[in-house]
Design brief:
Low-confidence stretches: 1-14, 192-196
Helix content: 40-55%
Order of helices and strands: HEHEHEEEHEHEHEEEEHEHHEE
Mean pLDDT: 82
Structural class: alpha/beta
Shape: globular
Strand order of the largest sheet: 2-1-3-6-7
Length: about 230
């Protein structure tokens, strides 16, 4: 059956390769099935030791890592994975700010908290892989379009002048349009990469500034006591 082996190897070579480190068998089996259905090749490990036994880590495009593992934490793998050139996405029940900060400071591309929506996770995986391959990603919110590759936003054809934090805030809303986002969820995604973290009161100010710049092109609604929701306007 050499022809079958060769065919499988060719398909695996063409597919983008993901490494899933997840100790919950139910979550792992569901994710492997969903990701393979999307055309990815997926290798699965349940702990730090099994992840370190995976040969040729550099062959993987993205690692999806849990933090709480039976023999350590997902952070124990960051050095090996980054050295191998593998992009990182944390998928974990840990929603503590310190862990989120540590993940991004360690080079993570994204951080998703359990419980999660499968469709949103798949979209985030694809977005990370697009950025890794240099493909231009476009987002839309009302009359606003965002060229992620350029790092620029436009109202129709007119460029929007945004600060770096305003731009990150806009991309969060555009990526989750129609969804209610808690303030903590937003804060975890927009802190300054230089290490100056955004406080809760500061978020209110930046949302106000962003609304003023967007005008009627897009609408950001305040959900009292919870956070915000961006609706196409």
């Amino acid at each position: 059956m050499a022809w079958l082996r060769d065919t499988i190897q060719r398909v695996m070579g063409m597919a983008q390769r993901l490494l899933l480190i997840e100790d919950d068998p139910v979550i792992a089996s569901g994710l492997v099935y969903a990701l393979e259905k999307e055309g990815f090749f997926v290798a699965h490990g349940r702990d730090v030791a099994s992840a370190r036994r995976v040969p040729r880590l550099g062959d993987y495009d993205l690692a999806i890592i849990d933090i709480g593992l039976p023999d350590g934490t997902g952070f124990d793998l960051v050095g090996d994975l980054k050295a191998a050139g593998c992009a990182l996405l944390f998928l974990t029940a840990v929603d503590e700010e310190g862990c989120v900060v540590r993940a991004f400071e360690g080079g993570a591309e994204d951080y998703v908290v359990k419980p999660f929506r499968l469709g949103e996770l798949l979209a985030r995986v694809k977005a990370v892989l697009r950025r890794r391959s240099g493909q231009s990603e476009m987002l839309a919110l009302g009359d606003v379009t965002i060229n992620v590759g350029e790092g620029r936003a436009y109202i129709k054809t007119e460029a929007l002048e945004l600060t770096a934090l305003e731009y990150r805030l806009l991309t969060v809303f555009a990526s989750h349009r129609g969804q209610v986002l808690e303030r903590g969820q937003i804060l975890s995604r927009i802190w300054d990469s230089s290490g100056v973290f955004v406080e809760d009161n500061t978020l209110t100010v930046y949302v106000k500034r962003l609304r003023e710049k967007l005008g009627d092109a897009a609408h950001i609604e305040t959900v009292r006591g919870v956070g915000y929701r961006a609706n196409v306007g």
